[in-house]
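Comment thread on ticket #2218

A.B. wrote:
> Attaching the input chain for the structure job we discussed in standup.
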Amino acid sequence: MAVNGTGVYLAFDGGPDASGGGAGIGPYDEIVLRGARAVGERAGLGKVIALRSAAGSWRDAESSSSGSDHIETGRGNLRISAGDGAVLVRFADDEVAGQTSVPDLGPFAAVVVGTHQVNGDQETLAVRVSRIAPWQLTDRAGAAFQGATREALVFVTNGRPAPTVAREIEAAPEGRPTAPESTPAPDAEPSVWVDRAKVAPEIYISRPDRKR
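C.D. wrote:
> Ran it. Output below, let me know if you need it in another format.
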Protein backbone atom coordinates (compact mmCIF):
# COMPACT_ATOMS: atom_id res chain seq x y z
CA MET A 1 0.00 0.00 0.00
CA ALA A 2 1.35 3.40 -1.00
CA VAL A 3 2.08 5.61 1.98
CA ASN A 4 3.01 9.30 2.12
CA GLY A 5 3.22 9.65 -1.66
CA THR A 6 5.52 6.64 -2.13
CA GLY A 7 4.81 4.73 -5.32
CA VAL A 8 4.90 4.99 -9.10
CA TYR A 9 3.36 7.73 -11.24
CA LEU A 10 2.16 7.69 -14.84
CA ALA A 11 2.44 10.76 -17.06
CA PHE A 12 1.77 11.39 -20.75
CA ASP A 13 4.87 12.34 -22.69
CA GLY A 14 3.48 14.31 -25.62
CA GLY A 15 0.16 13.85 -27.38
CA PRO A 16 -3.16 15.57 -26.57
CA ASP A 17 -3.03 14.60 -22.88
CA ALA A 18 0.58 15.67 -22.25
CA SER A 19 1.28 16.08 -18.54
CA GLY A 20 3.37 19.20 -19.00
CA GLY A 21 6.37 17.92 -17.06
CA GLY A 22 4.42 17.06 -13.89
CA ALA A 23 4.64 13.78 -11.99
CA GLY A 24 1.33 12.68 -13.49
CA ILE A 25 -1.29 10.28 -12.09
CA GLY A 26 -0.55 8.44 -8.87
CA PRO A 27 1.03 7.30 -6.72
CA TYR A 28 0.23 3.61 -7.24
CA ASP A 29 1.70 0.49 -5.67
CA GLU A 30 2.30 -0.74 -9.20
CA ILE A 31 1.27 0.05 -12.76
CA VAL A 32 0.51 -2.88 -15.07
CA LEU A 33 0.65 -2.33 -18.82
CA ARG A 34 -1.01 -5.07 -20.83
CA GLY A 35 -2.37 -4.80 -24.36
CA ALA A 36 -4.01 -1.42 -24.97
CA ARG A 37 -4.47 -0.33 -21.37
CA ALA A 38 -2.55 0.61 -18.25
CA VAL A 39 -3.95 -0.29 -14.83
CA GLY A 40 -2.91 1.42 -11.60
CA GLU A 41 -2.97 -0.90 -8.57
CA ARG A 42 -3.40 0.54 -5.08
CA ALA A 43 -4.24 -1.38 -1.88
CA GLY A 44 -5.31 -4.40 -3.94
CA LEU A 45 -7.67 -2.44 -6.19
CA GLY A 46 -7.04 -1.72 -9.86
CA LYS A 47 -8.15 1.18 -12.02
CA VAL A 48 -7.68 1.74 -15.75
CA ILE A 49 -5.69 4.96 -16.01
CA ALA A 50 -4.54 5.00 -19.65
CA LEU A 51 -5.72 3.63 -22.98
CA ARG A 52 -4.00 3.32 -26.34
CA SER A 53 -5.92 4.92 -29.16
CA ALA A 54 -6.43 3.49 -32.64
CA ALA A 55 -3.69 5.84 -33.86
CA GLY A 56 -1.22 4.22 -31.45
CA SER A 57 -0.73 7.05 -28.95
CA TRP A 58 -1.55 6.73 -25.25
CA ARG A 59 -4.43 8.75 -23.80
CA ASP A 60 -5.75 9.46 -20.32
CA ALA A 61 -8.55 6.94 -19.66
CA GLU A 62 -10.92 9.62 -18.33
CA SER A 63 -10.55 11.92 -21.32
CA SER A 64 -10.91 8.97 -23.70
CA SER A 65 -14.07 7.71 -22.00
CA SER A 66 -15.58 11.20 -22.04
CA GLY A 67 -15.50 11.19 -25.84
CA SER A 68 -13.00 14.05 -26.07
CA ASP A 69 -12.66 15.52 -29.56
CA HIS A 70 -8.95 16.24 -29.22
CA ILE A 71 -7.04 15.82 -32.45
CA GLU A 72 -4.14 13.49 -31.77
CA THR A 73 -0.75 15.08 -32.25
CA GLY A 74 2.70 13.98 -31.16
CA ARG A 75 3.79 10.55 -30.04
CA GLY A 76 1.68 10.28 -26.87
CA ASN A 77 4.08 7.99 -24.99
CA LEU A 78 3.80 6.95 -21.34
CA ARG A 79 6.39 8.06 -18.78
CA ILE A 80 6.64 6.21 -15.46
CA SER A 81 8.54 7.73 -12.54
CA ALA A 82 8.67 7.28 -8.75
CA GLY A 83 9.16 10.71 -7.20
CA ASP A 84 12.30 10.60 -5.04
CA GLY A 85 12.64 6.86 -5.60
CA ALA A 86 13.51 4.78 -8.66
CA VAL A 87 11.53 2.55 -11.02
CA LEU A 88 11.93 -1.21 -11.45
CA VAL A 89 10.55 -2.91 -14.59
CA ARG A 90 9.14 -6.44 -14.54
CA PHE A 91 8.23 -8.44 -17.63
CA ALA A 92 5.29 -10.74 -16.95
CA ASP A 93 3.20 -13.21 -18.88
CA ASP A 94 0.36 -15.62 -18.30
CA GLU A 95 1.42 -18.56 -16.14
CA VAL A 96 3.41 -21.01 -18.25
CA ALA A 97 4.76 -24.20 -16.72
CA GLY A 98 8.53 -24.22 -16.62
CA GLN A 99 8.88 -20.61 -17.70
CA THR A 100 11.76 -18.77 -16.02
CA SER A 101 10.96 -15.36 -14.55
CA VAL A 102 12.84 -12.42 -16.00
CA PRO A 103 14.80 -10.54 -13.30
CA ASP A 104 13.65 -7.02 -12.50
CA LEU A 105 15.40 -4.39 -14.60
CA GLY A 106 16.56 -1.14 -13.04
CA PRO A 107 16.52 0.94 -11.03
CA PHE A 108 15.74 3.79 -13.43
CA ALA A 109 14.92 7.43 -12.80
CA ALA A 110 12.17 7.17 -15.45
CA VAL A 111 10.84 4.68 -18.00
CA VAL A 112 9.23 5.75 -21.28
CA VAL A 113 6.86 3.39 -23.11
CA GLY A 114 6.24 4.12 -26.77
CA THR A 115 4.34 2.22 -29.42
CA HIS A 116 7.27 0.03 -30.41
CA GLN A 117 9.84 0.26 -27.61
CA VAL A 118 10.45 0.66 -23.89
CA ASN A 119 13.33 2.84 -22.71
CA GLY A 120 14.74 3.07 -19.20
CA ASP A 121 17.00 6.11 -18.78
CA GLN A 122 17.68 6.10 -22.55
CA GLU A 123 18.45 2.35 -22.58
CA THR A 124 16.23 0.20 -24.82
CA LEU A 125 14.74 -2.58 -22.67
CA ALA A 126 12.26 -4.13 -25.11
CA VAL A 127 10.84 -3.69 -28.63
CA ARG A 128 7.92 -4.98 -30.64
CA VAL A 129 7.03 -5.01 -34.34
CA SER A 130 3.40 -3.86 -33.97
CA ARG A 131 0.96 -2.46 -31.43
CA ILE A 132 -0.54 -5.91 -30.78
CA ALA A 133 2.71 -7.89 -30.68
CA PRO A 134 4.29 -8.98 -27.39
CA TRP A 135 7.38 -7.24 -26.06
CA GLN A 136 10.72 -8.73 -27.10
CA LEU A 137 13.51 -8.23 -24.57
CA THR A 138 16.88 -6.82 -25.56
CA ASP A 139 20.30 -7.81 -24.22
CA ARG A 140 19.69 -5.41 -21.30
CA ALA A 141 17.82 -8.29 -19.65
CA GLY A 142 20.90 -10.53 -19.96
CA ALA A 143 22.03 -13.03 -22.54
CA ALA A 144 19.71 -15.73 -21.14
CA PHE A 145 16.61 -13.61 -21.84
CA GLN A 146 17.60 -11.72 -24.98
CA GLY A 147 14.88 -12.26 -27.58
CA ALA A 148 12.36 -13.67 -25.07
CA THR A 149 8.82 -12.31 -25.36
CA ARG A 150 6.41 -11.20 -22.64
CA GLU A 151 2.90 -9.79 -22.85
CA ALA A 152 2.84 -7.42 -19.89
CA LEU A 153 5.00 -4.79 -18.21
CA VAL A 154 4.81 -4.11 -14.48
CA PHE A 155 6.30 -0.97 -12.92
CA VAL A 156 7.09 -0.68 -9.21
CA THR A 157 9.41 1.41 -7.09
CA ASN A 158 12.37 0.15 -5.11
CA GLY A 159 11.37 2.63 -2.37
CA ARG A 160 15.00 3.49 -1.60
CA PRO A 161 15.91 7.07 -2.47
CA ALA A 162 19.60 7.79 -2.75
CA PRO A 163 21.10 9.24 0.48
CA THR A 164 22.03 12.91 0.41
CA VAL A 165 24.22 15.16 2.51
CA ALA A 166 21.10 16.89 3.83
CA ARG A 167 19.73 13.61 5.23
CA GLU A 168 23.05 12.82 6.93
CA ILE A 169 23.02 16.25 8.60
CA GLU A 170 19.45 15.75 9.83
CA ALA A 171 20.42 12.42 11.38
CA ALA A 172 23.24 13.99 13.44
CA PRO A 173 22.54 15.42 16.96
CA GLU A 174 21.27 19.01 17.01
CA GLY A 175 21.18 19.09 13.22
CA ARG A 176 24.99 19.08 12.96
CA PRO A 177 26.97 16.50 11.01
CA THR A 178 29.05 14.18 13.12
CA ALA A 179 32.74 14.97 13.11
CA PRO A 180 35.05 12.18 11.96
CA GLU A 181 37.06 10.44 14.66
CA SER A 182 40.45 12.02 15.09
CA THR A 183 43.48 9.88 14.38
CA PRO A 184 47.01 10.55 15.60
CA ALA A 185 49.45 12.06 13.16
CA PRO A 186 51.85 9.53 11.61
CA ASP A 187 54.88 11.18 13.29
CA ALA A 188 53.29 11.58 16.73
CA GLU A 189 55.03 9.76 19.55
CA PRO A 190 52.99 7.05 21.31
CA SER A 191 51.54 7.80 24.70
CA VAL A 192 53.98 5.42 26.47
CA TRP A 193 56.70 8.03 26.06
CA VAL A 194 54.87 10.26 28.51
CA ASP A 195 55.76 7.90 31.38
CA ARG A 196 59.36 7.74 30.28
CA ALA A 197 59.65 11.51 30.52
CA LYS A 198 59.14 11.47 34.30
CA VAL A 199 62.24 12.51 36.29
CA ALA A 200 63.78 9.57 38.16
CA PRO A 201 64.44 10.11 41.92
CA GLU A 202 68.04 10.91 42.86
CA ILE A 203 69.80 8.02 44.66
CA TYR A 204 73.11 8.57 46.51
CA ILE A 205 75.42 5.58 47.01
CA SER A 206 78.31 5.83 49.50
CA ARG A 207 81.59 4.52 48.08
CA PRO A 208 84.98 4.33 49.91
CA ASP A 209 87.70 6.61 48.70
CA ARG A 210 90.10 5.09 46.27
CA LYS A 211 93.51 4.26 47.89
CA ARG A 212 96.30 6.55 46.86
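A.B. wrote:
> Thanks. Noting for the ticket: The radius of gyration is 32 Å.
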